[in-house]
Specification:
alpha/beta, Rossmann fold, 2 domains, seven-stranded mixed beta sheet, 7 strands, globular, binds guanosine-5'-diphosphate, binds magnesium ion, P-loop_NTPase
Length: 261
């Protein structure tokens, strides 16, 4: 068995994700979003010239990471591949999902295109099913204004349970507020809520059977309800990732549990 993530987060991040902290106490920020939402523009705005690109380990998917200091804290920013979903049907989606799930970022900034919220909210809700450490960067607000689209960001923030920061990344607008909220989230000063989407009764019945079993196995290493939903989806890639990152043979373990109960 390899080094555990808990004991040496710095070397695990490097080995498993090719993500490099400069100091052990640096915070890790993931940037997620649909393609063309201005994610790389936000990334550039946050990190300036302090960036480098490589590949995700074992994949031909580009891994861009950058660094910035803010109020005496260091932040490593990981620009995840642009995806419409995290349902893991492509290498990009697996990379994005695995980093959010197993890379344990201190905050996930989800960049949304303010001109097509409906399409963008899909990914946001999927991320919120995994983690509550989410900040929404509502980008392209200039385009939204031009198209006469009005968004009540306070109401949206209340509804989603996470901060929503309007931005025009191309003009650096909203970036300071984003840095402030990232810092606050990393220091646990922001109370956010995890989204729990209610499914139909037959699915909820199965979940109420599986979720407690998963909770016993994984404790807080992975959100049990979300994992149970992926298992119901027949998503084999999450089973592989659990073996790779957490060293559990989930299929065998569930079979053993079923024998006992
Ligand atoms: N009008 C406007 N354009 C933007 C803004 N942010 C980014 N862009 C432009 O949108 C395009 C896509 O941006 P990019 O950062 O590459 O998107 P990504 O695919 O999400 O990484 C580029 O032409 C950017 O210059 C913004 O706030 N307003
Ligand atoms: Mg990009």
């Amino acid at each position: 068995m390899g080094l555990t993530y808990e004991s040496t987060q710095k070397s695990s991040l490097k080995d498993l994700f090719n993500v490099e902290k400069q100091n052990e106490e640096d915070f890790v920020i993931a940037l997620a979003g649909n393609p063309n939402t201005g994610k790389s523009t936000v990334f550039n705005s946050l990190t300036g010239l302090h960036q480098h690109t490589g590949n995700w380990p074992g994949k031909t998917v580009t891994n861009a990471q950058g660094f910035y200091n803010y109020k005496n804290k260091g932040f490593v920013v990981v620009d995840l591949p642009g995806t419409y979903s995290l349902l893991a049907s492509s290498a990009e989606e697996i990379v994005a999902r695995d980093f959010i799930c197993f890379g344990r970022p201190d905050a996930v900034v989800v960049v949304l295109d303010a001109t097509c919220m409906e399409r963008n909210l899909n990914l946001l809700l999927q991320i919120q099913e995994i983690t509550s450490k989410v900040i929404v960067c509502l980008n392209l607000m200039d385009e939204a204004k031009r198209k006469n689209i009005k968004i009540d960001t306070n109401k949206l923030s209340k509804y989603l349970g996470v901060p929503v920061i309007p931005a025009v990344a191309r003009e650096n607008k909203g970036i300071k507020k984003l840095k402030d909220d990232i810092l606050k989230m990393c220091l646990n000063y922001i109370d956010t809520k995890q989204i729990e989407i209610k499914y139909s009764q037959d699915i909820e019945d199965i979940l109420s059977n599986i979720v407690p079993k998963l909770e016993k196995i994984f404790k807080n290493k992975i959100p049990s309800r979300w994992l149970a939903l992926r298992m119901l989806d027949g998503d084999k890639s999450i089973i592989e990732s659990i073996s790779k990152y957490l060293h559990y043979d989930l299929v065998n373990m569930m079979e053993e549990k079923n024998k006992i109960s």
